[in-house]
């Protein structure tokens, strides 16, 4: 039996409206899945595009590591006036105190004693400097570093990070004077900025 060509025309308006709504809902669902897939893939694509910076050989990342995140720090290096083994007083680094920001200037975490880096997603790493070089950009700025991660906590972008580079430093050095026996345990802050590159093993 041939379909009645007048069937759709004879369909009640309420049924036509319902059918249209169903089709619209189905199309919206398909488009939603499509765009969610695109959005989910964006961080991966961005991560794959981060190129490692040009740095001196001494602070190169370890073989097999790729850049997982870049953060721009601004804050202070905190120094305390303390004696060394020979009882000579000098400004000694106590801790950093800085905000970590993304390329858009949004605060994504913090950097503090440890040295520790903690992101707003809850992931956190602590490390130990394994190499350093004087800043090639500015001799009056703190050194460039390679830090090997020693502990992890939380889940997030730092979960698999194994190495951190501190580069492009500006400022942060302690005062040249003002630390002696009379000012023992005094503290001072030196403003600084730097870029931190976080590396993880390539998958």
Largest sheet: number of strands, sense, barrel closure: 8 strands, antiparallel, barrel
Radius of gyration: 28 Å
Q: Please indicate the percent range of residues in DSSP E strands (runs of 2 or more).
A: 35-45%
Shape: globular
SSE class: alpha+beta
Q: What string, H for helix and E for strand, traces the elements in order?
A: HHEEEEEEEE
Gap between N and C termini, in Å? Answer: 60 Å
Put simply, the count of helices is 2
Give the rounded overall mean pLDDT.
85
Oligomer: single chain
Number of strands: 8
Low-confidence stretches: 4-11, 28-47
Helix content: 10-25%
Strand order of the largest sheet: 1-2-3-4-5-6-7-8
Task: Characterise this structure.
The structure is a single chain. This protein is an alpha+beta fold. The protein is built from two helices and eight strands. The chain has helices spanning 7-10, 13-49, and strands spanning 65-83, 89-101, 107-112, 116-119, 124-133, 144-153, 163-171, 187-201. Strands 1-2-3-4-5-6-7-8 form an eight-stranded antiparallel β-barrel. A hairpin with a 3-residue loop joins strand 3 (107-112) and strand 4. Residues 4-11 and 28-47 have low confidence and may be disordered.
């Amino acid at each position: 039996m041939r379909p009645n060509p007048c069937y759709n025309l004879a369909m009640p308006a309420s049924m036509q409206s319902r059918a249209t709504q169903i089709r619209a809902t189905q199309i919206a669902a398909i488009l939603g899945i499509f765009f969610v897939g695109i959005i989910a893939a964006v961080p991966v694509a961005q991560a794959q595009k981060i190129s490692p910076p040009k740095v001196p050989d001494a602070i190169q990342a370890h073989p097999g590591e790729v850049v997982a995140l870049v953060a721009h720090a601004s804050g202070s290096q905190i120094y305390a006036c303390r004696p060394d083994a020979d009882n000579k007083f000098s400004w000694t680094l106590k801790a950093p105190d800085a905000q970590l920001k993304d390329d858009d200037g949004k605060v994504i975490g913090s950097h503090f004693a440890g040295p520790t880096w903690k992101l707003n997603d809850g992931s956190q790493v602590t490390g130990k400097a394994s190499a350093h070089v004087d800043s090639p950009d500015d001799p009056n700025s703190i050194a460039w570093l390679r830090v090997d991660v020693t502990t992890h906590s939380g889940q997030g972008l730092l979960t698999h990070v194994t190495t951190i580079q501190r580069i492009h430093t500006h400022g942060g050095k302690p005062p040249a004077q003002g630390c002696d026996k009379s000012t023992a345990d005094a503290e001072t802050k030196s403003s600084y900025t730097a870029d931190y590159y976080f590396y993880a093993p390539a998958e």
